């Protein structure tokens, strides 16, 4: 897996936390949100997170580059891994997964930061459901190094393995569930 650019779909608290963690570790981030004002808020949240990252980890060896778009297809086409961080509305997430799945390369894993929805439901309208997982982080994402990964009924073992390698590469400890349950383990 060669991940250089990570897509973030939704730039609220969780999306911004993923972005800060990734940028600090040298990954490029392309962030998507429907509002053009979201870019300024995202940058402000990253700026707030940065001193804590430096205090915890020291200065970054190489800082990644941040770009922003209001075009979902642009983000999905450029990303090597995608974090879905939209508001906790299952209907919205299902549509978002369908739309990302239609554009992203088939080998790109799409990980939902959902805190309770079943991945089987989220992957229900995808042509490549085998790559859809839950990657539920703990907040603040940029500081707390724990993520739950949860497969859906159609998620491949390979996608779960690759996601685990990626999450470890960005400094996360992975709690891998074997099957989906409501609320996962930690919620």
- Contiguous low-pLDDT stretches (5 residues minimum) are none
Largest sheet entry: 8 strands, mixed
Any idea what the radius of gyration is? 15 Å
Strand order of the largest sheet: 3-2-1-4-5-6-7-8
Number of strands: 8
Share of helix among residues?
Answer: 25-40%
CA-CA gap between termini? 30 Å
Which sequence of SSEs, written as H and E, runs from N to C?
Answer: EHEHEHEHEHEEHE
* Classification by helices and strands: alpha/beta
Kindly estimate the percentage of residues that lie in beta strands according to DSSP.
15-25%
Tally of separate helices: 6
The averaged pLDDT comes out at 93
Shape: globular
Q: What keywords describe this structure?
A:
globular, 187 residues, alpha/beta, 6 helices, eight-stranded mixed β-sheet
Structure description:
This protein is of the alpha/beta class and 187 residues long. 37% of the residues lie in helices and 20% in strands. The chain is built from six helices and eight strands, in the order βαβαβαβαβαββαβ. Strand 7, helix 6 and strand 8 (173-176) form a beta-alpha-beta unit.
């Amino acid at each position: 897996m060669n991940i250089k650019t990570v897509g973030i779909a939704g730039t609220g608290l969780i999306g911004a936390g993923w972005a800060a963690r990734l940028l600090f570790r040298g990954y490029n981030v392309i962030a998507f949100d429907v509002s053009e004002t979201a870019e300024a808020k995202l940058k402000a949240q990253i700026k707030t997170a940065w001193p804590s990252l430096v205090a915890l980890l020291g200065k970054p060896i190489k800082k990644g580059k941040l770009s922003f778009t209001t075009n979902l297809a642009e983000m999905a086409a450029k990303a090597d891994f995608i974090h879905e961080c939209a508001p906790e509305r299952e209907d919205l997430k299902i549509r978002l997964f369908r739309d990302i799945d239609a554009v992203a390369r088939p080998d790109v894993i799409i990980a939902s930061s959902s805190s309770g929805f079943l991945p089987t439901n989220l992957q229900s309208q995808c042509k490549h459901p085998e790559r859809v997982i839950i990657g539920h982080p703990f907040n603040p994402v940029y500081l707390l190094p724990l993520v739950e990964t949860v497969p859906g009924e159609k998620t491949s073992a390979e996608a779960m393995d690759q996601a685990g390698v990626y999450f470890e590469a960005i400094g996360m400890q992975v709690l891998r569930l074997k099957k989906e349950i409501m609320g996962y383990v930690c919620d």
